[in-house]
Amino acid sequence: MSRAAFPRQDQRTLADDGNELRFCSTCAFSQACMDEGMDKASLGDLHVLVEHVGPFHAGEYIFREGDPFEAIAAVRAGTVKTSVVDRDGHEHVLGFHLPGEVIGLNAIDGDRYPCDAVALDTVMLCRFSFPKISVLATRLPGLQRQLFRLLSRDIGRAALLAGDWSADQRMAAFLLGVSRRLAARGFSPNRFQLTMPRTDIANYLRLAPETVSRVLRRFQEEGLLRVERRELELLDRDALDALAAPVLRD
Amino acid sequence: MSRAAFPRQDQRTLADDGNELRFCSTCAFSQACMDEGMDKASLGDLHVLVEHVGPFHAGEYIFREGDPFEAIAAVRAGTVKTSVVDRDGHEHVLGFHLPGEVIGLNAIDGDRYPCDAVALDTVMLCRFSFPKISVLATRLPGLQRQLFRLLSRDIGRAALLAGDWSADQRMAAFLLGVSRRLAARGFSPNRFQLTMPRTDIANYLRLAPETVSRVLRRFQEEGLLRVERRELELLDRDALDALAAPVLRD
DNA sequence: CGCGCCCTTGACCGGATTCAATATGCGTGG
DNA sequence: CCACGCATATTGAATCCGGTCAAGGGCGCG
């Protein structure tokens, strides 16, 4: 179980190619750090730590539970699923990570990854060596604040799973969540792909796959959305918002 | 909403009375710090920060959501309920805090308490000024470690609410949890009081109050326990353990 | 073409909620 | 002391939501 995480196929480091800096500025991570008021010199320090890795193809593991924790990574393209397997062999999906989002943060208090991360489609990553970034964080309050914020945001997202919400509420909250996160990165908020299979959505929402199917069909009958296989279009945001409100608020 | 938290009625500071030090060493907090290997001098520093406050009577608020975060506190006697009220006015019980346990920790990343804390019976507290304790923590790694450990423990306890456990499993896990926590402070693990009303238990476990009643009655019929009003006796720990196992493990 | 995977759909079942009625304690005031 | 009122608990009956089981459909790929 001590295989190296983030295998380095096709990696290109920033040091090799100045153009990469501009390209990597699409990373949510760097952007957020700038929003936090980090100056350009600090941002330069940060970018030196970056490696671009990938592509990973659907089904490929990015890291596995128990792998030594060496780096966090920002998703540049594609979708990453994180999950754990309990002692009975059942998978529990922890979350989906869209372009611009960071994986590996929940390993921050240990020296091993506490979950699996697997690509759902073709995934490109920006890899940040964690030892280096944490040293840097001691010098840069803005960076540290950003790390803590990302951490607490992940924790807060668990509200979707806690609470005894109905299948409709869970599904509405999930779809709106994906929509908003995509919109925050410049993608269309109303038309997008569900890159994960129904079974993963169901597992994540703690529903049966059949229930996911039925809820989506009913939402479509009621004119809330249009869905065909993994293609999705949100038609009535207000209605979905109303459903999801108690889940997402407070 | 800017009323002062932890009103100081009946408070006696350590500085006023040397005897209080011995008494307060019953606080879980200090004990845990000693377990962490803190030396006596450091423990002395810690005890100087302590104020004994109380009593609070059943129904009295210890702090309210939005109050400025000034202190954490260890419960010396009684039970404290923490909860939030959503925008629809519905209460959500976050947890119950038994003697030896710490309240206020979840305010640690903000400057306001994020929840209400209310006494369920007659409550006595040890109050620790947070600004002072956090300064102290920078000097004492053992103290800092203890703070983080308490934090993560609280987060982990949410496992009881997540997951789609049956009413029986939730109830068994809840009862065993209370039993173990009481036992850890020297109380009888098999005979104790449920100091909270059924509605609060139900709310916490996300069940209907009627379901709580029925499950307890059935547990009694099956010989797992004896319950009369709020008096409880666990009779078949093994059976309860078996029920609670999947909830508490992993 | 045929196999496998993912998704859908229907019928049925069961656990938990909901609604409604009743019981039990406890404090208050007559 | 008892009567009363209120909050808390219990119990029963009806209902509903979501899970399970089983079958069938669409699509990609060898």
From TrEMBL, chains A, B:
Q: Record keywords: Nucleotide-binding included?
A: no
Tree of life domain? Bacteria
Q: Which SUPFAM superfamilies match?
A: cAMP-binding domain-like (SSF51206), Winged helix' DNA-binding domain (SSF46785)
What are the GO MF terms of this UniProt record?
catalytic activity; DNA binding; DNA-binding transcription factor activity
Q: Which residues form the Cyclic nucleotide-binding domain?
A: 56-108
- Family annotation (Pfam families): cNMP_binding, HTH_Crp_2
What SMART domains does this protein map onto? cNMP, HTH_CRP
What InterPro entries does the entry give? cNMP-bd_dom, cNMP-bd_dom_sf, Env_Response_Regulators, HTH_CRP, RmlC-like_jellyroll, WH-like_DNA-bd_sf, WH_DNA-bd_sf
Q: Kindly state the subunit structure of this protein.
A: Homodimer.
In its UniProt entry, what is this protein called? CRP-like protein Clp
Write down the species. Answer: Thermomonas aquatica
Upper lineage: Bacteria, Pseudomonadati, Pseudomonadota, Gammaproteobacteria, Lysobacterales
